[in-house]
Amino acid sequence: MFEPDYRNLVDCAYNRKPRRIPLYEHNVNAGIIERITGQTFVSFFFEQNYKEFFKPYCKFFLDYGYDAVTYESCVTEFLPYGGALSQPRTGYIDSMERYLSYPFEEAVRIYIERSAPRFDALRACMPKGMKAVGGVGNGVFEIVQDLCGFENLCILKYEEPEIFEGIFRKAGDMLVQIWTWFLREYGDIYCVARFGDDLGYKTGTLLSPQDIREYILPQYRRVISLIHEAGLPFLLHSCGNIFEVMPDIIACGIDAKHSNEDQIADMEEWVRKYGDKIGNFGGIDTDHLVRMDNILLEKEVSRIYALAEKKAGGFAIGSGNSIPDYVDCEKYLLMIDTVRRLRGDFGGKKI
């Protein structure tokens, strides 16, 4: 019988060799879990019946060999006048008037009010031996994009530099307030704290490296300091080619990094460059879980598992991004089963 132990994930985050190489996902789409388990429960979330949602959700991670449950409540879900990050819409903050009148304090209150019942239900449903990884979803850059829109943000840099500089600080202020509340109330049920902030694309960073260093990373330091003071390691999820700013990001105090895409760099390069400094999470390009032949996929998972075993420090294995609703369930389960077979606790359930 599989017995979860969240300390394996903690060891990986602190770049220590774990007793067992853990499985890790930034997110597993709940619809995928429904298809794999045959249980219908996603509707409970939208009905705000959170306990009935989290019971099968948490049990999935237990049944399929994970040491921790991945869950975060995203800030951008609740931002007044937000939505430009995920939708093709113009950002709300496009003038000094809107910037000065934006209800930042109200946004913090709304987040806390609406997220607390979710975290309470997660606590009630957490399986023995497990904790959660995640916490407050979205980083500084994603929050700023949600309010301003990326294109408009770039225009503001030149036409309204005071807004461009101030909006990052305002996002940092919001995150500090929210994380302070979260760590006080729910830090005990989390083993690794994380936010996602996609700073790059295939060939480089979305903002200039200098802008990232000047405006974004100082806010990272504020949040990471809070997390470390609470006794938790911090995991950064960031997509894209961010090699140019990785030394600066590491200097901010991150303990581990997730997200990799083979067309940017093989996971071996991430380990070679930073494996002695931080924990490495991921390894299997999500595209492989959609299109790769099963025989080749099993070989690829075995190759990444061997890389994890070889590394002196921490390595948690899983997709290089997440498990969205278009992933092939059979291939996702093949990845899980291969890892569990290689580490000696095979018990995955095939469909």
How does this model look, in words?
The protein is α/β, with parallel strands linked by helices and 351 residues long. It is built from 15 helices and seven strands. The chain has helices at 7-13, 30-37, 42-46, 50-63, 96-101, 104-125, 140-148, 150-159, 161-186, 209-229, 246-251, 267-274, 288-291, 294-310, 329-343, and strands spanning 68-74, 131-137, 190-196, 234-237, 256-258, 279-284, 315-319. The protein has a seven-stranded parallel β-sheet with strand order 1-2-3-4-5-6-7, sandwiched between helices. Helix 4 packs across helix 6 (104-125). The longest helix is centred in the middle third of the chain and has 26 residues, at 161-186. It is globular and about 60 Å long. The two termini are 20 Å apart. The relative contact order is 0.15. The model has no long low-confidence stretch (mean pLDDT 97).
Uncertain segments of ≥5 residues (pLDDT<50)?
A: none
Number of strands: 7
What is the approximate shape?
Answer: globular
What is the helical fraction, as a range of percent? 40-55%
Structural class designation: alpha/beta
Tell me the number of helical segments per DSSP (H or I, 4 or more residues long). 15
